[in-house]
């Protein structure tokens, strides 16, 4: 009777578990789904989930600025007892409580792209990202080469205070200030809205007819920047560096609107993020930080394999 009771109780426990937990769902939650960059993360994650025995969901807010929606998505994933979470936090502080809840529930978390603040230390197992400070310095080196290290350079950024922005834009500005005579104009914050970046760049170009260079620090910002340069008849006249590598930005490099783009391994963030969580679910250890790389792409190397591997 006791053995039968144990069998019945065990069956009841299994029946009570959410189907997603039994299937081994990995929830991939990004800053927004309305960006080719994040869709390329999705492609990498989808490729990595195959043959793992797990399932995957992909979600994100309509806009990167909708931080509350992303917090709710993490909370919902915790509430349905997913097996693991891959998260690109849109705010370094606001996502910390949700990640803590995941940790308390025993759900492994891989953070990608942008880090959490110090308050989130110990609540996730690994962080996969571009070394954004190194990327910012690489952009600064290219800008100094293109401008001769002097004149006005405008900085078109995206969301102030996001982990990737702090490293990418902060190190770009710091290196220019330390190693050149360049005068910084901005930074301006587009909230990752292409139309906003277009309007801001148009205003900057109008107010600074002597502008020598301009840096667009993420995909929608750089696309808006490129369109503004073309509309103002300044394409090819201002040294312009973008960040990320969708088709619009590739076309801008090919036609000379942009001098260069720095392209992150977005596919690799999704691929390696899901692999890390899969390993954690299996009880394996993972590195606390995984560098997903960045490539400087110009007209000279855009058709080379090193560029093709990261462009999307």
Automatic annotation (TrEMBL):
Any one Gene Ontology molecular-function term assigned to this protein's record: carbohydrate binding
One Pfam family hit: Peripla_BP_4
Cellular compartments per GO CC: cell envelope
Domain of life per record: Bacteria
Key words, A-Z: Signal
Cross-referenced Gene3D superfamilies: 3.40.50.2300
Domain Periplasmic binding protein: 26-284
Main location: other
Signal peptide: 1-23
Subcellular location: Cell envelope
Entry annotated with the keyword Zinc-finger: no
InterPro entries, sorted: Peripla_BP_I, SBP_2_dom
Sequence similarity: Belongs to the bacterial solute-binding protein 2 family.
Protein's UniProt name: D-ribose-binding periplasmic protein
């Amino acid at each position: 009777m006791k053995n039968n009771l144990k069998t019945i109780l065990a069956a009841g426990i299994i029946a009570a578990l959410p189907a997603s937990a039994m299937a081994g769902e990995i929830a991939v939650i990004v800053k927004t789904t309305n960006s080719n960059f994040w869709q390329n993360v999705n492609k990498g994650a989808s490729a990595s989930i195959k043959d793992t025995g797990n399932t995957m969901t992909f979600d994100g807010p309509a806009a990167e600025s909708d931080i509350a929606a992303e917090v709710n998505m993490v909370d919902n994933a915790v509430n349905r007892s997913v097996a693991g979470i891959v998260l690109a936090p849109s705010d370094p502080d606001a996502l910390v409580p949700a990640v803590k809840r995941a940790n308390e529930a025993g759900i492994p978390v891989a953070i990608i792209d942008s880090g959490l603040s110090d308050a989130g230390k110990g609540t996730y197992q690994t962080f996969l990202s571009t070394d954004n400070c190194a990327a910012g310095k690489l952009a600064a080196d290219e800008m100094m080469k293109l401008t001769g290290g002097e004149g006005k350079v405008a900085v078109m950024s995206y969301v102030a205070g996001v982990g990737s922005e702090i490293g990418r834009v902060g190190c770009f500005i710091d290196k220019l200030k330390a190693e050149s005579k360049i005068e910084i104009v901005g930074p301006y914050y587009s909230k990752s809205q292409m139309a906003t970046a277009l309007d801001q760049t148009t205003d900057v170009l109008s107010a600074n007819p002597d502008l020598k260079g301009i840096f667009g620090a993420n995909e929608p910002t750089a696309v808006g920047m490129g369109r503004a340069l073309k509309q103002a008849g300044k394409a090819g006249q201002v040294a312009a560096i973008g960040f990320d590598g969708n088709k619009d930005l590739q076309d801008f490099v090919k036609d000379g609107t942009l001098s260069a783009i720095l392209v992150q391994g977005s596919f690799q963030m999704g691929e390696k993020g899901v692999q890390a969580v899969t390993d954690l679910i299996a009880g394996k250890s993972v590195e606390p930080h995984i560098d997903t790389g960045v490539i400087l792409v110009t007209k000279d190397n855009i058709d080379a394999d090193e560029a093709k591997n990261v462009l999307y």
